[in-house]
Amino acid sequence: MFSEEKKSKNYGSIFLYCFFCFVLIVEVARFAKPYYNLQNLMETEATVEEGFLAVEDSEKLPCRLLSRPSVSVPSQDQQKLSQAVTQETRTRPPNSYCVKFQSFITMAKQVKENGGKYESRPFSVGGYNWTFIIYPNSNIPSGSGGYVSLYLRIDNSTLITNPKDVYADITFLTYKSSTDKYQSYQETEAQRFHLFRQQWGQLTFLPIVYFENPGYGYSFDGGSVVFGIDINIVKPFENWEVFSNEQNIRDPIFEWRLTKFSTLFHDSYTSDSFSSGGRNWALKLYPNGVGNATGNSLSLYLLSASNEKGYVEAKLRVIDQIQSNHFEKKVAAWPNATENGWGFDRFLPFADIKNTSKGYLVNDTLKLEVQIFSFSKTDFFSHQSSAFFPISYGDSI
Ligand SMILES: *[C@@H]1O[C@H](CO)[C@@H](O)[C@H](O)[C@H]1NC(C)=O
Ligand SMILES: *[C@@H]1O[C@H](CO)[C@@H](O)[C@H](O)[C@H]1NC(C)=O
Ligand SMILES: *[C@@H]1O[C@H](CO)[C@@H](O)[C@H](O)[C@H]1NC(C)=O
Ligand SMILES: *[C@@H]1O[C@H](CO)[C@@H](O)[C@H](O)[C@H]1NC(C)=O
Ligand SMILES: *[C@@H]1O[C@H](CO)[C@@H](O)[C@H](O)[C@H]1NC(C)=O
Ligand SMILES: *[C@@H]1O[C@H](CO)[C@@H](O)[C@H](O)[C@H]1NC(C)=O
Predict the structure, then answer these.
(1) What is the whole-number distance in angstroms between the Cα of residue 333 and the centre of ligand 3?
(2) Membrane spanning segments where (predicted)?
(3) Which residue in 371, 395, 271 sits closest to 317, CA to CA?
(4) In this structure, which residue's CA is closest to atom 6 in ligand 3?
(5) Strand 274-276 to strand 191-193: parallel, antiparallel, or no bridges (unpaired)?
(6) Contact 292, 286 (CB under 8 A)
(7) Would the CB of 156 count as within 6 Å of ligand 2?
(8) Is the pLDDT score of 42 beyond 80?
(9) pTM for the complete prediction?
(10) Is the Cα dihedral 300, 302, 307, 312 positive or negative?
């Protein structure tokens, strides 16, 4: 009927038709329960004219026809649409499933005897089976008014054997042939499916008349209509880390005694490893200095035996073996000496070591000490097979 009008290029009747559409939309807005506001309706009205003029140019099949009618029990677990819905137009096709009705109007009549709904055959997304349910008739389910309702149902067989929550971001789409795009309506929050809530959807997707009347641009090729769905399973995190600061250090002090200091000829010496705060460490000394300190000062560092990298607060000392007037420098830093952990290139000038009245070198023995006050740590956790256990223990930046 409408396409005949179109062919005649009778602009008077086009105008009449548009006026009719506008009145109809306003009526729908008043009597149905729309989830979008009047502003959106005005936008829709604006595209109606455009849609009407572009009806004939759609030869494309946006989705493969996969479904055949199936019989299923009417559902009871309906969930009404919440307000937080975003609407968009896109060219990207649905990512999970599509149902094309060769004739929306014929399908709507046929499913009346089947609880008023069309249920797709099961399809698999994210390790679960789902079905896509379309209600094409007014007031089925009750409260839907003059709107098509779209629902997604999870196959409960997996949930029965392994009860858990399945979170899914869902977008319902319909193909608009007049613009060759998909119109989508997406809930902003991921939906939670579980054993006692196996179905979720939109009670008022779009007015039924949009799909009955080709003038709106959704019905094409003599009454075909396409509905699609995006399902993105949102898996909760399985790995995480906890960053903390270890403060009450057990065995905080380690002493390292170097005898025959004047005979040390290697570039560097590393102490035996020692445990402090439950972690293994070592001291590293360059008796002749390293870098800019070469030939000038002792270079001294604290190392992590397991190569951890975190924030460390510690004091490095050279013991005054005569008056206990020790020399010390505090480090409070992330590892700041490449390959050498935490410490100082120019730790103690040789002049001070040689000065016997300072008591650092007695009988050719040097006593070094470290006191660890705190260090940061990062614990890593993983939760697979539903048990929580730490997988490693260490620092990271
Ligand atoms: C999904 O359905 C198919 C066919 O019915 C079945 O073989 C498969 O095991 C199901 N998968 C799940 C996760 O339920
Ligand atoms: C699982 O789904 C079927 C059909 O959808 C339904 O008949 C059955 O009651 C459901 N089982 C549970 C435990 O919810
Ligand atoms: C060494 O000293 C020079 C000049 O004083 C300086 O530019 C350079 O950054 C120093 N290198 C190191 C590793 O401290
Ligand atoms: C490491 O950090 C300390 C301050 O915590 C600083 O005094 C020292 O010079 C730094 N060492 C190097 C090698 O940059
Ligand atoms: C040696 O150390 C003492 C005490 O710190 C100081 O008084 C004296 O000047 C130092 N001698 C030299 C040669 O640096
Ligand atoms: C000095 O060290 C030697 C061995 O290195 C030791 O035999 C001697 O007893 C030490 N003397 C003192 C006074 O500590």
Answers:
(1) 19
(2) 12-32
(3) 371
(4) 292
(5) unpaired
(6) no
(7) yes
(8) no
(9) 0.61
(10) negative
Helix (H) or strand (E) holding 104: helix 104-111
Summarize pLDDT for 324-381 with one digit per residue, the tens. Answer: 899 999 999 999 877 789 999 999 999 999 999 999 999 999 999 999 999 999 999 9
What tokens were used for 371? Answer: 């006191």
Residue with the two structure tokens 């008349």: 209
DSSP H or E run through 349: strand 342-349
End-to-end CA distance of the chain: 70
Residue 331 Cβ < 6 Å to ligand 4? yes
Between the CA atoms of 78, 84, 90 and 93, what dihedral angle is there, to the nearest 10 degrees? -30
CA dihedral sign, ordered 290, 292, 298, 299: negative
Quick check: CB of 160 below 6 Å from ligand 2?
yes
Neighbours of 352 (CB within 10 A): 14
Q: What is the SS3 string spanning 199-253?
A: EEEEEEEEEHHHHHCHHHCCCECCCEEEEEEEEEEECCCCEEEEEEEECCCCCCE
- For residue 358, the CA-to-ligand 5 centroid distance in Å is 7
3-state secondary structure of 173: strand
Mean pLDDT for 131-156 is: 95
pLDDT at 114: 86
pLDDT tens digits, one per residue of 259-283: 999 998 899 999 999 999 999 999 9
What's the CA gap between 24 and 245, in Å, rounded? 67
Instruction: Give the total residue count for the chain.
Output: 397
Element (H, E) at 27: helix 11-31
Residue 305 CA to residue 334 CA, distance in Å, equals 16
Looking up tokens 């602009």 gives 11
- Residue 267, Ramachandran bin (φ over 0: left; ψ between -120 and 50: alpha; else beta): alpha
- 294 alpha carbon – ligand 3 mean position (Å): 12
* The pairing of beta strand 365-384 with beta strand 118-119: unpaired
368: β partners: 256, 318
Element containing residue 41 per DSSP (H, E): helix 38-53
Type and span of the H or E element at 330: strand 327-333
Closest alpha carbon to 54 in 205, 208, 181, 227: 181
Residue nearest to atom 1 of ligand 2 (CA): 156
Contacts of 161 (CB under 8 A, 6+ apart): none
Q: How far apart are CA 290 and CA 288, in angstroms?
A: 7
